[in-house]
Amino acid sequence: MWLLGATLALALIGLAMIYSATACITNEPLDFSSPTIRQFLYLIAGVVAMFLFALVDFRILGPMRWLIWLFVIASLATVFAIGQITHGAQRWIDFGVFLFQPSELSKLLLVIVLAKYMADHAAQMSRWRYLAISFGFIAIPLALVYLQPDLGTTIVLAATWGVMALAAGIKARDVLMIAALLVVLAPLAWINLRPYQQERVLSFLDPGRDPLGTGYNVQQARIAIGSGGLWGSGYCSGTQSQLRFLRIRQTDFIFSVIGEELGFVGSLFVLGLIAFVLWRLVRAAMLARNAFGKLIAVGVAAGMFVQSVINLAMNMGLMPVTGIPLPFVSYGGSSLISLFAAQGVVQSILLRHGGLELEGASREYE
Amino acid sequence: MNDLEQEYSLTRRVVAEQEKPRSNFRLFRLGIVAAFVVLAFQLAQLQLVQGEYYRGVADQNRFRLIETDALRGIIYDRGGRILTRNVPAFNVSITPADLPDGDFDLERVLQTLARLLDLPLATLIENKSLDVMGRLPADLDRDVARPQRKLGLRDLVKTGYSDPFTPILIKTNVPRDIAFFLEEKHLDFPGVRVGLAPVREYTTGALFSHILGYVGHIPRELFDEYKEVGYAPDDPVGLTGLEYAFERDLRGKKGTRYVSVDVAGREVARLGEEDPTLGNNLILTLDSEFQDAVENILTRAMRGVRAKQGVAIALDPRNGEILALVSLPSYDNNLFATGISMDDYTALAQDPAHPLVNLAITGQYPPGSTFKLIPATAALQEKTINPDTRISTPGIILIPNKYFPDDRALDQPFYDWYKPGFGALNIREGLLFSSDVFFYKLAGGYTDFDTGLGVEKLAQYARWFGLGETTGIDLSGEAKGLVPDSDWKRKTIGDIWTTGDTYNMAIGQGYVLATPLQVAQYTEVVANGGKLWKPQLALAVTDANGALVRKIDPELIREIPVDASALAIVREGMRLAATRGTAERVNLADVNVAAKTGTAEYYGPKINGHLPTHAWFTAFAPYENPQIVVTVFVAGGGEGSEVAGPVAADILRAYFRLPSTAPLAALPQPIAPPVTVRQPPTRGVAPHKYAGQWLSEVPGGELPGIFGTVVDANGRGVNGVHVVADKCDGNQIFREITDGNGAFNFKGVYWKDSARWCVRTVAPADSDALAIQVQPYRRYIVQFVPTQ
User: Which residues pair with residue A94 across a beta bridge?
Assistant: First the structure.
């Protein structure tokens, strides 16, 4: 219940801030095309999805892993074929009323696939061969997402795999070796980055470089958060957000709106909520009696952790702009619904093998 | 059950391996804690430590000191009629910061804009080396502003990156439907803004464009200068004409607004405001109705002789106020005010008639006989002659070749325009007939008149009369004209000055050059008794409410050191020319006019073996107290008296509000009807075979003509009869031989020399002399019939 409460709180704060970021000063009537209403509907859909997944025994997902994996590959490939092009990237499939972003759902689905494999080979996971095979599961999706191009999601997926492998029992020495390998490969990766991605990294290192390009967003986000001060400028009253100096503010830079309008107090509260959710997810993983469930919970936690940290660090100017949403808070249906579905799976894990104090009914069932 | 057991054993295995993962979990948890501590620390750093600083930056983002444009002043004619005003027009600007983020979306917006607004996407290569001005003064280039190199939209956006919140004006004068379309679809065009800003409208278009000039964008190469005095890149600025000359008055003073803006620069709240000061208005000395009338008159006359270029100037000799100034062809300055297209500009700039050039002040031409006013004044003042000195004016004089002075066969002839010559003339008559030989001798001396004025004196007076210097009119690009002297010739041509040069200069030919405005100016000096005024176009500057800010007083350039009596005699000469001489076509019945014609040869394709000529006519009226000077110039217009004279007459009619049919003064009536004089028969000559008859009198050219036929008893023309004309004193002056129709004609007899002319046949049979009382502009038709 704590977990559910915290995620709902985050989502509601997100909803309020999306309203502030998009609708406060326009005074236009809210309709089905306005982000606030849409996000509200996504929230309802997400909660429904959460309950559905919570009710279903998560273990039936295990045997379906090949199906799930093929679905991920297929949906990501579909994006290439008929995807919607926005902001120079191809990330969406248009369903008429809804632009579906397969990479968001993939985060959950790949966690399930990986968890199944790692759970099945829990004893061997410390061996290189099995580690490599587990990476093989995400290699193709990773490549497809990277080519969209969506560097943020790529990083999130790779990091999720890393954390799950860690949780599955690889040695700390191996982790260090992988890290060393990454350092060696970094220059190679740099060469392979798209010009705009390189530009983002560079403008992060020197925001004055290109004030209108990506450096502009970094700069304005930092100004927005900083100008919030202790108490913030008040809901719907942030000049950076309301006068639209801050861009893509309802999605990637929603935290800057929070920082500006709710101040240090509000931002810290949101930060705390996210940390709390993560904490509860890790706790759920530790409590899980089943390796499959445990690894799913770890994967969900890892994905959310990496995504949150990248987004928050980006908002605060600690990392380059990569274009990923803040979990539960940012505007976006695919993301929100997938996240709630993931919560549903975790709930399912807790319900069935949890032994959590608040899941009394399920314990009786056990 | 089996399932559960299997599951259980699996779980046990996992639990057995729990030890290692547990430590790894700790690592993960540690990672989470560490990350969030770092984030919280950074949050505190930004919001608590640097909060003040970022608050300031945010304020800088949204508070803006915005300049508000002042409406440009209005220009009125002297009757208070509006000549130019400000009308609202749509413009489109883009704010780089608010344009779509992605390259793809940006390109879509730019492409659509380029199509809608007809703007280039890529930067065009500058269209250089337009040979606009031909041989006109080089400094004119500066004034006829070329269209700027058009930056393509893509590059334009890039130029805005340094200041992404400042909107960049990309198009002015956007058609209404396109403006509405963009406004309606503004959601599809983020960062694109439709604005409403005044543009200059010239209600009179081409009629005043040479005077008013036009307003445009600051030329790129001059931007730094303008920036220093507070201009912004998109500010309109007067580029030529009075718009340029009175820029400071017309511009007004910008206001400022302290506002809060959104990212697109849209004003959200107004925090403080200082209103702009409207530009001052300008009231001209010109009258648009009169200007219009002058233009119509000149246009009609030019069409009659197929002339391409012409100028008419009317000014007030009492103070130098310009009353009308027309230079044809002209152009529509509205084209420039709204941003001229390269095609339109090229067409105007390459037009051989130079419509962009104000010929009244930049065209330099030989002034022809109108120049004679200057040697006439100079000679009287310098006592080269007194008012009654008579100089003989044969139709031709010869001066020795400068290299072979002794070889009379190589003598250089100088002709009068009237080959028979005028006899001995005084200065008034010299002006009346515009005798060239009179002025040759007056200026350069001759064997029978060795006290010529000399080139240095002549040049000195020409300069006093305003030649060789700009008049200082409030229009730029003015030419100086040229006053040659021996020093000048040695330096520029490398040759010595000859008497022939002085002769040519005396009749306004040779090296001497003047602009039409300068001709009007020296006419003014003669008319007003010696004052050279600066030509004045503006009467006063008023503020937006019409209150007088500054009266523009007449400015005296100089008072010419000439006795009033000398100028009075020159005026008399001009009056005579208008009443009885070369300038008769301007002799209005209702107003006494004084005038001088000019027919200036120039080097061009010959017509009937003669050099082509520019027609000049300069006049003032009323003769007794001059109020107006009118100078007319028609390039390639032929005879000044024939083409330019009637134009001046019509302009004077318009000025004095006489009907266009107002008659010329009646010609003096014949003193007596023509009579036949029987001459004493000469010794040993056969009886007279023919008798002359006066048939009729018809209108003719300036010089009276005697036309006739010699017929036989049956009324058929007789070929080969010699007919002579004399002044009834028996000294034959003209001789003609009848053609196959028996016709002869004495096209011009000099009526001033003698009012009575006698015509008679001399061979093969003679007749009694037929005496005819002649008058100018009359043609007398006679017939000789056999006496039997």
Answer: A99
B-chain residue closest to A225, CA distance? B47
Q: What percent of chain B has pLDDT over 90?
A: 26
Task: List B619's β-bridge partners, or say none.
Answer: B595, B630
Domain B63-284 fold is Penicillin-binding protein 2a (Domain 2) (3.90.1310)
By CA distance, what is B38's nearest residue in A? A313
Burial class (CB in 10 A: 0-12, 13-18, 19+), A343: buried
Q: How confident is the model at residue B676 (pLDDT cuts 50, 70, 90)?
A: very low
Q: What does the pLDDT read at residue B150?
A: 58
Dihedral (Cα; B435, B440, B442, B445), 10-degree rounding: -150
A239 contact residues in B (CB cutoff 8 A) = 58-59, 61-62, 260
Q: What is the pLDDT of residue A89?
A: 62
What pLDDT band is residue B403 in, cutting at 50, 70 and 90? confident
Residues B542 and B549 sit within 8 Å (Cβ to Cβ):
yes
Residue B51 sits at the chain A interface (C-beta within 8 Å)? yes
HEC per residue, B526-549: HHHCCEEECCECEEEEECCCCCEE
Closest CA to A21 of A36, A33, A11: A36
Spatial neighbors of A319 by CB under 8 A, at least 6 apart, are A204, A310, A313
Residue carrying the six token digits 């602009």: B515
Reply yes or no on whether the pLDDT at A142 is more than 60: yes
Mean pLDDT computed over every residue of chain B: 81
Q: What tokens appear for B638 in the block?
A: 């032929």
Domain ranges of chain B: 2-49, 63-284, 364-643, 675-786
> Closest by alpha carbon to B742, among B763, B758, B725, B720?
B720
CATH no. for B675-786: 2.60.40.10
Residue type present at position B142: R
Quickly name the fold that domain B364-643 has: Beta-lactamase (3.40.710)
Structure tokens at B282: 């300008």
Full domain range(s) for residue A353 = 2-365
Determine the Cα–Cα distance for residues B645 and B305; give it in Å rounded to an integer.
13
Which of B90-94, B131-135, B438-442, B542-546 tops mean pLDDT?
B438-442
Count of the separate structural domains present in chain A: 1
By C-alpha distance, which of B81, B474, B536, B473 is closest to B246? B474
Name the maximum alpha-carbon separation found in chain B: 175
- Residue B40, chain A, CB below 8 Å: the answer is yes
Q: Name the more confident of A311 and B125.
A: A311
Q: Do B28 and A119 touch (CB under 8 A)?
A: no
Mean local confidence (pLDDT), B593-597: 90
